Amino acid sequence: MVAKPKLRYVSRKYIIWDMQQNQEIHKNADWQDKMVEIEMRVSDMDGYKDIAFFHHLMIEKR
Fold first, then answer.
1. What is the torsion angle, in degrees rounded to the nearest 10, for the CA atoms of residue 46, residue 41, residue 51 and residue 33?
2. Under the phi-then-psi rule, with left for phi > 0, alpha for psi from -120 to 50, and beta for the rest, what region is 47?
């Protein structure tokens, strides 16, 4: 019998981060911390999911 993969979760990242065009601010640690916090808040919200740059699929092998 062949194991069938099952999609467990989709994590979406870089929803807000890349909207900031100023590349210099990306080097600022305080800005990075704030962006990670915001990214984590919106990553599962409808509307934001569709515009995410990365979609990480968590697949379980059964």
1. 180
2. left
pLDDT tens-digit profile of 26-55? 889 999 999 889 888 887 788 877 778 777
Residue 14 sits at the vertex; the CA angle it makes with 8 and 18, to the nearest 5 degrees, is: 165
- Token pair, residue 27, equals 């080097």
Considering the entire predicted model, what is its pTM?
0.60
In which domain, by residue range, is 36 found?
A: 5-61
Distances in whole angstroms, Cα of residue 8 to Cα of each of 2, 19, 26, 37, 45: 18, 28, 31, 23, 17
